Amino acid sequence: MSLGEIESRLRSAEAKAGREQGSTTLIAVSKVQPNERVEAILDQGHRVFGENRVQEAAGKWPMFRETYENVDLHLIGPLQTNKARQAMDLAQSIHTVDRPKLANSLARLAQELGYCPDLYIQVNTGEEPQKAGVLPIDADTFIQDALAMDLPVKGLMCIPPVEEEPSLHFALLGKIAKRNGLAGLSMGMSGDFESAVALGATHVRVGSAIFGARTATG
Ligand SMILES: *Cc1c(COP(=O)(O)O)cnc(C)c1O
Q1: How far is CA 203 from CA 78, 108, 112, 148, in A?
Q2: Could you tell which of 30, 79, 125, 189 is best to mutate to test the pocket of ligand 1, judged by most ligand atoms within 8 Å of the CB?
Q3: What is the DSSP string of 134-165?
Q4: What integer is the mean pLDDT of 197-203?
Q5: pTM strictly above 0.90
Q6: Which end of the chain is more exposed for a tag (fewer CB within 10 A), N or C?
Q7: Whose CA is nearest to atom 6 of ligand 1?
Q8: What is the rounded CA–CA span in Å between residue 32 and residue 16?
Q9: Distance in Å, CA 111 to ligand 1 centroid
Protein backbone atom coordinates (compact mmCIF):
# COMPACT_ATOMS: atom_id res chain seq x y z
CA MET A 1 0.00 0.00 0.00
CA SER A 2 1.22 3.52 -0.63
CA LEU A 3 1.96 6.18 1.95
CA GLY A 4 -0.86 8.26 0.49
CA GLU A 5 -3.36 5.45 0.93
CA ILE A 6 -2.37 4.93 4.56
CA GLU A 7 -2.63 8.67 5.19
CA SER A 8 -6.10 8.82 3.70
CA ARG A 9 -7.22 5.80 5.72
CA LEU A 10 -5.88 7.58 8.80
CA ARG A 11 -7.77 10.79 7.98
CA SER A 12 -10.98 8.77 7.37
CA ALA A 13 -10.57 7.02 10.71
CA GLU A 14 -10.17 10.42 12.41
CA ALA A 15 -13.30 11.73 10.69
CA LYS A 16 -15.29 8.64 11.61
CA ALA A 17 -14.23 9.01 15.25
CA GLY A 18 -15.18 12.68 15.24
CA ARG A 19 -11.58 13.64 15.79
CA GLU A 20 -9.73 16.61 14.36
CA GLN A 21 -8.00 16.01 11.02
CA GLY A 22 -4.31 15.45 11.59
CA SER A 23 -4.66 14.75 15.31
CA THR A 24 -2.91 11.40 14.80
CA THR A 25 0.77 11.31 13.89
CA LEU A 26 1.77 8.60 11.44
CA ILE A 27 5.08 7.03 12.45
CA ALA A 28 6.50 5.16 9.46
CA VAL A 29 8.30 2.18 10.98
CA SER A 30 11.39 1.73 8.83
CA LYS A 31 13.18 -1.01 10.77
CA VAL A 32 14.89 -3.62 8.60
CA GLN A 33 13.74 -1.91 5.39
CA PRO A 34 16.21 -1.35 2.56
CA ASN A 35 17.46 2.25 2.33
CA GLU A 36 15.83 2.76 -1.08
CA ARG A 37 12.39 2.14 0.39
CA VAL A 38 13.04 4.58 3.23
CA GLU A 39 14.37 7.20 0.81
CA ALA A 40 11.27 6.78 -1.35
CA ILE A 41 9.11 7.72 1.64
CA LEU A 42 11.43 10.61 2.56
CA ASP A 43 11.21 11.82 -1.05
CA GLN A 44 7.44 11.96 -0.69
CA GLY A 45 7.94 14.45 2.12
CA HIS A 46 7.26 12.21 5.10
CA ARG A 47 9.52 12.99 8.07
CA VAL A 48 8.26 10.93 11.02
CA PHE A 49 9.91 7.52 11.35
CA GLY A 50 10.19 4.74 13.89
CA GLU A 51 13.06 2.38 14.57
CA ASN A 52 13.32 -0.60 16.88
CA ARG A 53 17.00 -0.81 17.50
CA VAL A 54 19.41 1.94 18.52
CA GLN A 55 22.24 0.26 16.64
CA GLU A 56 20.30 0.06 13.42
CA ALA A 57 19.01 3.64 13.75
CA ALA A 58 22.56 4.89 14.35
CA GLY A 59 23.65 3.12 11.18
CA LYS A 60 21.30 4.98 8.86
CA TRP A 61 19.60 8.08 10.28
CA PRO A 62 22.65 10.33 10.67
CA MET A 63 23.25 9.61 6.97
CA PHE A 64 19.64 10.29 5.90
CA ARG A 65 19.72 13.48 7.96
CA GLU A 66 22.55 14.82 5.82
CA THR A 67 20.11 14.90 2.91
CA TYR A 68 16.71 15.33 4.55
CA GLU A 69 15.92 18.01 7.13
CA ASN A 70 13.58 17.88 10.09
CA VAL A 71 13.48 14.13 10.51
CA ASP A 72 11.49 13.23 13.62
CA LEU A 73 12.75 9.86 14.85
CA HIS A 74 10.90 7.67 17.35
CA LEU A 75 12.54 4.77 19.13
CA ILE A 76 9.85 2.12 19.53
CA GLY A 77 11.88 -0.95 20.51
CA PRO A 78 13.31 -2.12 23.83
CA LEU A 79 16.04 0.13 25.21
CA GLN A 80 18.99 -1.12 27.22
CA THR A 81 20.30 1.27 29.82
CA ASN A 82 23.76 1.28 28.27
CA LYS A 83 22.27 2.54 25.00
CA ALA A 84 20.20 5.29 26.60
CA ARG A 85 22.64 8.09 25.82
CA GLN A 86 22.93 7.08 22.18
CA ALA A 87 19.14 6.84 21.96
CA MET A 88 18.81 10.36 23.37
CA ASP A 89 21.25 11.65 20.75
CA LEU A 90 19.33 10.07 17.89
CA ALA A 91 15.65 10.08 18.73
CA GLN A 92 13.16 12.86 19.44
CA SER A 93 10.86 10.40 21.20
CA ILE A 94 11.37 7.17 23.12
CA HIS A 95 8.25 4.99 23.40
CA THR A 96 9.59 2.20 25.52
CA VAL A 97 10.31 3.43 29.03
CA ASP A 98 9.38 0.37 31.04
CA ARG A 99 11.40 0.07 34.23
CA PRO A 100 12.79 2.19 37.07
CA LYS A 101 16.43 1.56 36.14
CA LEU A 102 15.86 3.01 32.67
CA ALA A 103 13.84 5.94 34.01
CA ASN A 104 16.67 6.73 36.45
CA SER A 105 19.28 6.62 33.68
CA LEU A 106 17.21 8.89 31.44
CA ALA A 107 16.70 11.35 34.30
CA ARG A 108 20.42 11.43 35.07
CA LEU A 109 21.35 11.86 31.40
CA ALA A 110 18.71 14.57 30.93
CA GLN A 111 20.34 16.52 33.78
CA GLU A 112 23.76 16.07 32.27
CA LEU A 113 22.81 16.84 28.65
CA GLY A 114 20.24 19.54 29.36
CA TYR A 115 17.57 17.97 27.15
CA CYS A 116 15.43 14.87 26.96
CA PRO A 117 13.37 13.33 24.16
CA ASP A 118 9.60 13.02 24.63
CA LEU A 119 8.96 9.87 26.60
CA TYR A 120 6.21 7.27 26.49
CA ILE A 121 5.78 4.56 29.06
CA GLN A 122 5.20 1.11 27.64
CA VAL A 123 2.42 -0.81 29.34
CA ASN A 124 2.20 -4.58 28.97
CA THR A 125 -1.59 -4.51 28.70
CA GLY A 126 -1.79 -8.21 27.87
CA GLU A 127 0.44 -9.13 30.84
CA GLU A 128 2.54 -11.31 28.56
CA PRO A 129 5.65 -12.66 30.30
CA GLN A 130 7.85 -12.35 27.19
CA LYS A 131 6.81 -8.77 26.46
CA ALA A 132 8.32 -5.55 27.78
CA GLY A 133 6.29 -2.93 29.58
CA VAL A 134 5.04 -2.24 33.09
CA LEU A 135 2.08 -4.30 34.19
CA PRO A 136 -1.23 -2.43 34.30
CA ILE A 137 -1.36 -2.83 38.08
CA ASP A 138 2.04 -1.13 38.46
CA ALA A 139 1.45 1.55 35.84
CA ASP A 140 0.05 4.39 37.99
CA THR A 141 2.94 4.26 40.45
CA PHE A 142 5.55 4.00 37.72
CA ILE A 143 4.05 6.91 35.75
CA GLN A 144 3.84 9.13 38.80
CA ASP A 145 7.40 8.24 39.85
CA ALA A 146 8.68 9.13 36.36
CA LEU A 147 6.80 12.44 36.38
CA ALA A 148 8.22 13.17 39.83
CA MET A 149 11.71 12.79 38.33
CA ASP A 150 10.81 15.66 35.97
CA LEU A 151 10.95 13.35 32.96
CA PRO A 152 8.95 14.64 29.97
CA VAL A 153 6.42 11.80 29.97
CA LYS A 154 3.95 12.55 27.16
CA GLY A 155 1.92 9.39 27.13
CA LEU A 156 1.69 5.60 27.06
CA MET A 157 2.45 2.93 24.51
CA CYS A 158 1.25 -0.65 24.08
CA ILE A 159 1.61 -3.64 21.76
CA PRO A 160 -1.49 -5.84 22.18
CA PRO A 161 -1.12 -9.64 22.19
CA VAL A 162 -1.37 -10.91 18.60
CA GLU A 163 -4.26 -13.26 19.17
CA GLU A 164 -6.48 -10.88 21.13
CA GLU A 165 -8.91 -8.14 20.15
CA PRO A 166 -6.69 -5.04 20.12
CA SER A 167 -9.51 -2.64 20.99
CA LEU A 168 -9.69 -3.96 24.54
CA HIS A 169 -6.01 -3.14 24.98
CA PHE A 170 -6.30 0.27 23.35
CA ALA A 171 -9.22 1.11 25.64
CA LEU A 172 -7.29 -0.02 28.72
CA LEU A 173 -4.26 2.06 27.71
CA GLY A 174 -6.50 5.09 27.22
CA LYS A 175 -8.04 4.62 30.63
CA ILE A 176 -4.65 4.42 32.38
CA ALA A 177 -3.43 7.52 30.49
CA LYS A 178 -6.53 9.50 31.33
CA ARG A 179 -6.43 8.86 35.05
CA ASN A 180 -2.77 9.90 35.08
CA GLY A 181 -3.36 13.08 33.11
CA LEU A 182 -1.40 11.97 30.05
CA ALA A 183 -2.52 13.02 26.56
CA GLY A 184 -0.32 10.83 24.35
CA LEU A 185 -1.32 7.36 23.19
CA SER A 186 1.12 5.42 21.00
CA MET A 187 -0.92 2.49 19.73
CA GLY A 188 -2.00 0.82 16.51
CA MET A 189 0.10 -0.87 13.81
CA SER A 190 -0.49 -1.93 10.20
CA GLY A 191 -3.33 -4.32 11.03
CA ASP A 192 -5.23 -2.29 13.58
CA PHE A 193 -4.40 1.41 13.39
CA GLU A 194 -7.96 2.41 12.51
CA SER A 195 -9.38 0.94 15.70
CA ALA A 196 -6.54 2.61 17.63
CA VAL A 197 -7.57 5.98 16.15
CA ALA A 198 -11.17 5.29 17.17
CA LEU A 199 -9.91 4.85 20.74
CA GLY A 200 -7.82 8.01 20.80
CA ALA A 201 -4.37 7.11 19.45
CA THR A 202 -2.18 10.19 19.02
CA HIS A 203 0.61 8.19 17.36
CA VAL A 204 0.18 5.10 15.19
CA ARG A 205 3.23 3.00 14.30
CA VAL A 206 2.82 1.58 10.80
CA GLY A 207 5.54 -0.47 9.11
CA SER A 208 4.66 -3.18 6.63
CA ALA A 209 1.51 -1.46 5.31
CA ILE A 210 3.69 1.43 4.11
CA PHE A 211 6.95 -0.26 3.17
CA GLY A 212 5.83 -3.75 2.28
CA ALA A 213 6.72 -6.90 4.16
CA ARG A 214 9.97 -6.89 6.06
CA THR A 215 12.56 -9.23 4.60
CA ALA A 216 14.13 -9.93 7.99
CA THR A 217 12.54 -10.06 11.41
CA GLY A 218 12.73 -7.02 13.58
C1 LIG B 1 7.57 -3.33 13.89
C2 LIG B 1 6.75 -2.56 14.84
C3 LIG B 1 5.61 -1.84 14.41
C4 LIG B 1 5.12 -1.86 12.97
O5 LIG B 1 4.54 -3.08 12.71
P6 LIG B 1 3.72 -3.34 11.34
O7 LIG B 1 2.83 -4.45 11.68
O8 LIG B 1 4.72 -3.64 10.31
O9 LIG B 1 2.98 -2.09 11.05
C10 LIG B 1 4.94 -1.08 15.34
N11 LIG B 1 5.33 -1.03 16.63
C12 LIG B 1 6.39 -1.71 17.09
C13 LIG B 1 6.77 -1.60 18.51
C14 LIG B 1 7.13 -2.49 16.21
O15 LIG B 1 8.18 -3.18 16.68
Answers
A1: 18, 27, 29, 24
A2: 189
A3: B-HHHHHHHHHHHHHTT--EEEEE----TTS-
A4: 98
A5: yes
A6: N
A7: 207
A8: 33
A9: 31
